[in-house]
Amino acid sequence: MASSSEEDELVVQEAARHSGVCPARLDNGSAPRFEEAPLATKKPVGQRKTRTREHVLADLALNHVERQVFRCGFSAERVWRDYGLDLVLFTYNDRGEVESGQILVQLKATDALPLLRGGQMIAFPLARADLQYWLRETDPVILIVYDGQRDKAYWLYVQAYFEAIRPLDLFTASGQLTVHVPTSNRLTRRAVCQFVRFRDQVQAQTEGRVRHYV
After folding, report:
1. Is 213 helix (H, G, I), strand (E, B) or coil?
2. Coil, helix or strand at residue 137
3. Range with the lowest mean pLDDT among 54-63, 102-111, 167-176?
4. Inter-residue contact 54 to 69 (CB < 8 Å)
5. Among 86, 96, 188, 190, which one is most buried in terms of CB atoms within 10 A?
6. Is residue 94 part of a domain?
7. Are residues 27 and 122 in the same domain?
């Protein structure tokens, strides 16, 4: 049978277990004093991931373009892994049947539109690696520059733009080249229909002339 002092000790320990304090007996054998048990320190929570203005602009640009495409009855597939393209547009005839060929879109968004010639041109830098990719594409590549402050977008038919200027050696060109996008090229439903005509013109040149080998 436990002695009275042992019973007292058990009571003290039980009380300490429930109260979160730590008993400590004095050296002279007197009644125990209680000390606060050290609390476990938690690591400060780091800052959460933030949504930046660049993220907002990217979503606004996508929404702006997709809205015009959908109003034409077409569809737009987002390219989630960005290797130089953001959207692929598919078109359909009056019966809803998918048409051959695609329209490839690269989006650029900014809050500070770099305007030239009294606001008639947008000067926009492009990476040489992207141009090397786009200019080898058969389907039209459309560069779209979105103005986040005015909620407007402007477009450039990339292959046609570089065919109209002097021959360009992309292997000796600098890391970036600047193109000039006319502000008269507003992105509208009519512009999307114009992209379709660009695609059809390319299709007409290749129809029946492409041979496939195994």
Report:
1. coil
2. coil
3. 167-176
4. no
5. 86
6. yes
7. no
